[in-house]
Design a protein that fits this description.
Blueprint (H helix, E strand, L loop, with lengths): L1 H28 L16 H8 L4 H15 L2 H14 L7 H16 L1 H6 L8 H9 L1
Length: about 140
C-alpha cells in the first residue's frame, strides 16, 4: 500500500500544478475585463493615459489667459483678474506668486522695464515687481 500511495502522490504532484495553472488561466480569460468584446474595460489603455496626461492644470490655464489679457489690454487689468481669481478659488493662492512673476516678466517684454513697473500692485506679495526686476 505504501508503494501505491507514493505513486499516486507523485502523479498528483506532477499533474495538480498543471491543472491549477490551466484552470486559473481559463478563469481569468473569462472575466469581463479580459477585453474580448465585453464592451467595458477597467484597465486604461496607453492612449487613455496620454489623453488625460495632456489635461492642463488650472493655474497653467489661468496663467495663459492672463498673459493673453496682458497683451490685449494692460498688466493692471491682468493683475486685477489674478487677484479676483485667487479670491474666488483659494486653491490658486499657492500659485499666485509664480503667475504674478510671469506677468511681470511678460510686461517687461511688452512694455519695457520702466512702463512695466508703473503697473505694479501689491498682488501676491509684490511678485509682479519681482518678475519685472528679474526680467530687466
Amino acid at each position: 500500500m505504501t508503494h501505491t500511495a507514493r505513486r499516486i502522490g507523485r502523479s498528483l504532484a506532477l499533474v495538480l500544478p498543471v491543472v491549477l495553472v490551466l484552470s486559473g488561466t481559463l478563469a481569468v480569460s473569462a472575466v469581463p475585463w479580459a477585453g474580448h468584446g465585453s464592451g467595458t474595460q477597467l484597465l486604461a489603455s496607453s492612449t487613455d493615459v496620454s489623453t488625460r496626461a495632456k489635461a492642463r492644470a488650472p493655474q497653467d490655464i489661468l496663467r495663459d489667459q492672463l498673459l493673453a489679457e496682458l497683451q490685449e489690454k494692460d498688466p493692471g487689468t491682468a493683475l486685477t483678474h489674478l487677484q479676483r481669481e485667487v479670491e474666488d478659488r483659494p486653491s490658486l493662492a499657492k500659485h499666485c506668486m509664480s503667475i504674478a512673476r510671469s506677468l511681470g516678466a511678460a510686461a517687461v517684454r511688452h512694455y519695457g522695464p520702466t512702463r512695466a513697473q508703473s503697473f505694479s500692485r501689491p498682488v501676491c506679495d509684490t511678485s509682479f515687481a519681482t518678475g519685472v526686476m528679474h526680467a530687466s
